[in-house]
């Protein structure tokens, strides 16, 4: 999921919210307001519950300020470390796809259009070491991290995204550059991407350390869905 605003919410609470979130979407705004009213006194959960028909904006650290030079550094077990500006990323061959964005808390935004550099292309550009087995992602908020296996990271539907819905990725959506892991729940799609680090092992991310699944496939246990065109 996108990052959460306020106090961390444990996995058991989030799983309990799944049915409530789906019910809110199904019966409309009236039920959603009631669910939000019930949960809002508890750890700020009213800000975590799904909105009807749109995104929720979360942050694990509160207000996030963009750096003056928001480069995405690719380093670790690579031959040619490099810091990519948003302009450099936009100048590289672009991959476009349209996918539903699914949050583990139950809300979904259908048919979101994304564009950016397919992560396999960026990894090829820096030259991945034979020792690398995983990729770790760091947000420039200083707190949020995520990881994929190298095999997962080489899927064509994993993007270093610079465009969303036909325009730049906005700050609240994790811009100017964010990760999109299209076949997994939204918490794997790290916002405010600042660093991509090639590592020997998978490092559990911010939410995995709080009980979430490391492999977060949506709908299918093996994650083998259609690649983008």
From TrEMBL:
Ranges for domain Oxidoreductase molybdopterin-binding: 67-207
Listed InterPro entries: OxRdtase_Mopterin-bd_dom, OxRdtase_Mopterin-bd_sf
Domain of life according to the entry: Bacteria
Protein name: Oxidoreductase
């Amino acid at each position: 999921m996108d990052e959460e605003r306020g106090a961390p919410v444990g996995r058991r609470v989030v799983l309990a919210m799944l049915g409530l979130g789906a019910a809110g979407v199904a019966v409309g705004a009236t039920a959603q307001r009631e669910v939000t009213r019930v949960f809002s006194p508890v750890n700020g959960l009213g800000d975590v519950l799904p909105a009807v028909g749109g995104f929720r904006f979360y942050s694990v650290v509160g207000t996030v300020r963009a750096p003056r030079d928001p480069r995405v550094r690719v380093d670790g077990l690579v031959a040619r470390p490099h810091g990519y500006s948003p302009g450099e990323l936009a100048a590289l061959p672009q991959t476009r796809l349209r996918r539903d964005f699914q949050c583990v808390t139950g809300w979904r935004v259908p048919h979101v259009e994304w564009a950016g550099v397919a992560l396999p292309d960026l990894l090829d550009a820096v030259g991945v070491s034979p020792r690398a087995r995983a990729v770790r992602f760091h947000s420039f908020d200083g707190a949020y991290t995520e990881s994929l296996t190298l095999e997962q990271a080489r899927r064509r539907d994993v993007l270093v995204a610079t465009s969303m819905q036909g325009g730049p990725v906005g700050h609240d959506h994790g811009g100017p550059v964010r990760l999109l892991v299209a076949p997994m729940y939204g918490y794997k799609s790290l916002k405010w991407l600042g660093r991509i680090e090639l590592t020997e092992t998978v490092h559990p991310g911010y939410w995995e350390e709080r009980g979430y699944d490391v492999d977060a496939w949506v709908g299918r246990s093996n994650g083998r869905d259609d690649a983008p065109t």
